[in-house]
Design goal:
The structure holds two protein chains of two kinds. By secondary structure, chain A is of the alpha+beta class. Chain A is built from eight helices and eleven strands. Chain A is elongated. Classes of the chains: A alpha+beta, B mainly beta. At the A-B interface, helix 1, strand 1, strand 2, strand 3 and strand 4 of A face strand 8 of B.
């Protein structure tokens, strides 16, 4: 059993790695994230002080996750962990980014501050991945629709939740696909668990198209698609058919997500 | 061991073709320039070239992203239109240590610092592998610039040019002089309050 214990500690210890980065030492720790990474911290000596920071990585999205500061529940959890581990923050060089750090004058306590900061970063990153609220049907559909368009169109052509022109900032679309010479195509996503949600979606979509058309730059728009989530059974309701008809009459192209989403790509290619 | 990362089942189905494609020589343009700034990502630049192979795996291209205009912080992604998430292989250089979460990997080999090269294992896991040519304990590992990266990738993916000249890569950001911000020490010039 002693042999296996030494093999276990060898494997664990092998996860610690380091490398010099200018005046700092990057320490790659065994603390993992649920985004398939290991936490790195950066150790620097400033006069009598030893400082260990995260290098601005957590705030900068280096751990492949966006920190949801605006979420009140997450914000409370982050404050709790910062307090519990004694972590401070400071802006990065030239005010860019945000650094989480800890320091000590006592060289014997350098391992302690590294342990605390790495542990803090691991829990703070992993907690940011927890969905504290149920995603709405609309959020879920929007994600599927975005993934579909991203897989078919190059990154430099499509932007999401964007305006077509800065001259009409009130008219915002689920996706704007840029073509040549300032022209483009617009797509609005419509989904929802209830008929009322869907009706609101149509109303919002129509309002945005109307705002753009009335602004005088409507001629620059080549296609106006309304991508409808018909994987939700409520959308099949006869009560919604008139809304789809209204879309058609006003020159917008209703597209069924389940049956004809590839038509968007085909039309854009023409 | 926790949950493993997701497998790509299309790769599992097609593995022989994928492997054959990756091993075959591929033709690329002689020159690859990264010029354009990415939309919504100021200070990040991207470019791509088409890649042709006599054993095709969909329509393939090589994309490069240079972050923070740094020659030490970039990735090259080898892409196809045949896979849903498009990626066939990727060279990651700069920041971050990948954690391989797939069955059968001893704990000490799960941590793979940058630079590392990702490709698919036969069972569809997209794993990161260290580069043989890099000493990870030295500062060389954080000074693996995009010229070295492109050269590594050309060897790995067996690229050859469509002309008589050697393959050439450069970073020429549109509208600005390419003064690269190559600070390797993230703590440099950061003001920390004195503590204790």
């Amino acid at each position: 059993m002693k042999t296996i214990f030494s093999e276990i500690t060898y494997a664990f210890n092998s996860l610690w790695k380091s490398r010099q980065r200018g005046g700092s030492l990057e320490i790659i720790t065994p603390f993992p994230t649920s985004t398939d990474m290991y936490i790195s911290v950066f150790l620097t000596q400033r006069g009598d002080f030893w400082i260990v920071s995260d290098g601005g990585w957590m705030h900068g999205g280096m751990y492949n996750c966006e920190i949801p500061y605006a979420d009140k529940i997450y914000d409370r959890a982050l404050s709790f962990f910062m307090d519990d581990y004694g972590i401070k923050t400071t802006p990065g060089a030239e005010g860019k980014g945000l650094y989480y750090y800890k320091g000590t004058k006592n060289r014997d306590l350098v391992p302690n501050i590294i342990f605390d900061l790495a542990n803090f970063l691991s829990v703070a990153v992993n907690t940011s991945l927890v969905e504290f609220r149920d995603q709405t049907e609309s959020d879920r559909f929007s994600r599927h629709a975005k993934n579909f368009l991203k897989s078919k169109l190059s990154d430099d052509r499509v932007t999401f939740n964007a305006v077509f022109s800065d001259s009409v900032p009130m008219a915002r679309f689920s996706a704007v696909v840029r073509n040549k010479k300032g022209r483009g195509s617009l797509i609005n996503f419509i989904s929802g668990r209830t008929q009322n949600n869907i009706r609101t979606g149509f109303a919002r979509s129509n309002m945005n198209f109307d705002l753009l058309e009335d602004s005088g730059i409507g001629d620059l728009v080549e296609h106006k698609f309304v991508l409808i989530d018909d994987s939700v059974t409520s959308i099949a309701s006869e009560k919604l058919a008139p809304m789809i008809q209204t879309c058609k009459k006003r020159g917008r192209i209703p597209i069924s997500w389940e049956h004809s989403r590839d038509r968007i790509i085909a039309e854009l290619a023409v | 061991m926790g949950k493993n990362q997701k497998r790509n089942l299309k790769i599992v189905e097609d593995y022989d073709l994928y492997h054959m494609h990756m091993e075959k020589e591929k033709e690329v343009p002689e020159n690859f320039y990264v010029i354009k700034e990415k939309e919504n990502h100021p200070q990040s630049y991207a470019g791509s070239i088409d890649v042709n192979c006599e054993v095709p795996y969909g329509k393939t291209e090589l994309q490069c992203e240079i972050r923070e205009a740094s020659s030490y912080n970039y990735s090259f992604s080898y892409m196809t239109d045949m896979l849903k998430d498009r990626i066939l292989a990727r060279l990651d250089v700069g920041n971050g240590t990948h954690r391989n979460r797939a069955p059968g990997i001893p704990l000490q080999l799960t941590s793979v610092p940058t630079p590392h090269y990702h490709y698919y294992r036969e069972d569809g896991y997209f794993l990161a592998f260290p580069l043989d040519c890099v000493d990870y304990s030295s500062e060389d590992a954080v000074k693996f610039d995009f010229y070295k990266g492109y050269s590594y990738l050309c060897n790995q993916l067996k690229f050859y040019g469509n002309g008589a000249k050697d393959l050439y890569f450069d970073f020429c950001p549109e509208g600005v002089l390419p003064f690269l911000d190559d600070v390797n020490d993230p703590n440099e010039n950061v003001l920390f309050d004195e503590i204790d």
